[in-house]
Amino acid sequence: MTKELKKILELITDYKIIGDCEKIITGIEQDSRKVVAGTLFVCMNGAKVDGHDFAIQAIEKGVNTILAEKEISVPPHITLIVVSDVRETIKIIVPYFYDYPGTKMRIIGITGTNGKTTTSYLTKNILQKAGYKVGVIGTIQIMIENEILPINNTTPDVIELQQILYKMYDAKIDYVVMEISSHALELERIICCEIDVAAFTNLTQDHLDFHKTLENYRDAKGLLFEHLHEGKKENKTAVFNMDDASSPILCDRTKTRILTYGEGRNNDIYPLFFKVEAKQMRLQLHTPVGEMDLLLKITGEFNVYNVMAAVAIALAEQIDKKTIVDVLNGFDGVPGRFQLVEAGQPYTVIVDYAHTPDGLENVLKTARSITEGKLWVVFGCGGDRDNKKRPIMGRIALELADRVVVTSDNPRTEDPAVIIDEIAEALKDVPEGKSVELIAERRDAIYHALSEAAANDVIMIAGKGHENYQILADKTIHFDDREVVQEYWKKR
Prior knowledge:
The chain is of the alpha/beta class.
């Protein structure tokens, strides 16, 4: 992939150029560690670092063209392009550089507080079974068919996203299934991505450190639906969970075909019957193409909603009923999403990514329904994130579990003890028969539950799910809740 610099510059106005514009650009990067000769290096101001400080490092690796917001001292052979707003500029030039890949494939966009990942993997499997080549961009990883790439954000930044989409198009991908965060919508990371099906799972408290109010958070999600009708593609559909209070509001802002799901029989898709069991779930759905009788390997009422969302998306794309049913019955879950951990223990251990009040409530209610003995929950809250949800999650844990163990999640730059104290504000009046432990070290907290639980108990380890790391103030360490359980029982 190459473009003439002068052609790129034709797209923007109000810039100053110092140096030769007769250059060929072979890539665009904002990370100086990724550049090679021919790369246009973008000096991006971040929350913690200023990209301008890494310009010399990029030049030493062969870069001869730099996009910046201020004049910086560079050698004579370097071309410096100075603009007033680098972030706005890359929204224009990066999709052009990669030939607008976000308009060339069918894109399924899934947004909501909870359920995005499971819904996206259900959708991916259905589309693959139908014969399509599928790429996934989500919380856990990026997939280009069977090739797996790491990911840093639920939705990558503009440069990385366009690079990924270009790779997918080059690999002849038919469908991209993308989890779309509220941050990505608010910051326009998905610029020049024309969505074909947009699905809304739910909206509960999260990310208020960024959005400030729940209404702002909802409105950020709503951008996906307000703009869905725009572009050149046809046959676009919006999918809504009508049991969420935000859905009617977002429906009113949508100018495309709408498919709905939920408990009410006025929806396009609704459950006729379901039974949650420890390791499976029976579900019968009404759909526009007839009833679907399912015996699922995933369980929990929250997964009823994820399944209905995936069915709606598949029907929007005209996938046949048999394909949908076959895939749903064979789907064995997503890593870290209500995942059973087997290590030879006499009780049940479940690991889940639940890190919001609604998410924690959903998994604990499901765990309670399969618990014969005591229900344990080991959880914490992330640092440098919405602190208003901490006591709320504490109240939910105390209400629904018998044994509550509060610990660290990803404390980041915050003191883990402060986070735990904010959760513990809701844990002062412990009902008779219940217990609360505050154990800052996450491994020690998990070990405590594993050592004290009795046969027929259920231990829910919540908050990190698939993550195999823990972010501390000065470093990131390897940490996997599932491995810790295995490690404990190997020592036993």
